[in-house]
Design goal:
By secondary structure, the protein is α+β, with helices and mostly antiparallel strands. The chain has one domain: Alpha-Beta Plaits (2-Layer Sandwich), CATH 3.30.70.930. It is built from three helices and four strands. The chain is globular.
């Protein structure tokens, strides 16, 4: 997998209230069901590993569709994409590399 993305979805509802867990769960479920994508839920967003940019963007679109169906009147998203073209690297590889640096200090 050569494409990593992170998406944070903020659904805005006409109902008011501050809880977003139902809509966020719908977004995450849609992302993890996207073919060719591995999703990891974090407290502030979802990390996506995909084999190509199209798969990553399909996952982002699926999240928006799911949140819309969950009743959001507005959807605000922040998306960051890292498309690595020189080699395959997983998110775990990136974390392991930083931990290796920390242990060598």
């Amino acid at each position: 997998m050569a494409v990593h993305a992170e998406i944070s979805v903020i659904p805005v509802s006409k109902k008011g209230g501050t809880s977003m867990s139902r809509e966020v769960a719908a977004a995450f479920d849609a992302i993890r069901k996207t073919r060719g994508v591995k999703a990891t839920l974090t407290a502030l967003g979802t990390q996506i590993e995909a084999r190509d940019i199209d798969s990553a963007l399909r996952a982002v679109r699926a999240a928006h569709v799911a949140v819309r169906k969950a009743g959001a009147a507005r959807i605000i998203s922040s998306v960051r994409i890292d498309e690595r073209l020189d080699r395959d690297q997983t998110l775990e590889d990136k974390v392991r590399s930083v931990k290796r640096e920390l242990s060598s200090e």
